[in-house]
Design a protein that fits this description.
Helices cover about 40% and strands about 15% of the residues. The chain is α/β, with parallel strands linked by helices and about 160 residues long. The chain starts with 10 loop residues before the first strand and ends with a strand.
Length: about 160
Amino acid sequence: MSHPSVLADMEVLDTAALLSWPVQMLINGLCATSQLSEVQHLSPARHLLVEAQGPSFVDPTPSAIEMAREASQETGDFAGLSKVDIDVLALALSTGHPLVTDDYRMQNVCESMNHPWRGVIQSGVKEVRSHALVCTACGASYSQGDLCPDCGSPLKLKRKKSN
C-alpha cells in the first residue's frame, strides 16, 4: 500500500503507524503521550527517532477519556482496549481529527460514533459490531469485569448476535 510522503492534514496516529511508517510521514500527526512507553517497549531504536522527529505528543483530557470509555462500553469494545488505546481514542474523538489505526475495536468505536478513521496498513472494519462479556458458566452478559458477579466464573468477550 502506498502512502503520501507526509500527512496532508492533522490525524491522530495509533502505535502501529509510529512503528511502521517512515518518520517524515509522522510529523503532522498527533499522538497520546502514553504511546511513547509502548513504542519504547516494542522498539527502543524507533522510540528515539519518533520522540526526536515524529508527531506531537499530548495527554487527553479526563473528559475526553471518559467520552472514549463510554463510547467503547456502548459497543462492548472497552474490555478489549488498553489504557493507551483509550488515550488514543480520546484524542481522536475530542479533537475531531481522523484516527489512523489497524485496531478493529478502535475502528468499531469510531464507526459507531460516525468519527472518521482509516487503516494504517489494513482496510479495516466493514460494519459496526457489538460485543459483550459473557460468563463462561452461567451465560450472563456484562459490560465490564473479569469475573461473573453472580457465579464467580471467568468472563469472555463475545460478539453479540445481530437482530
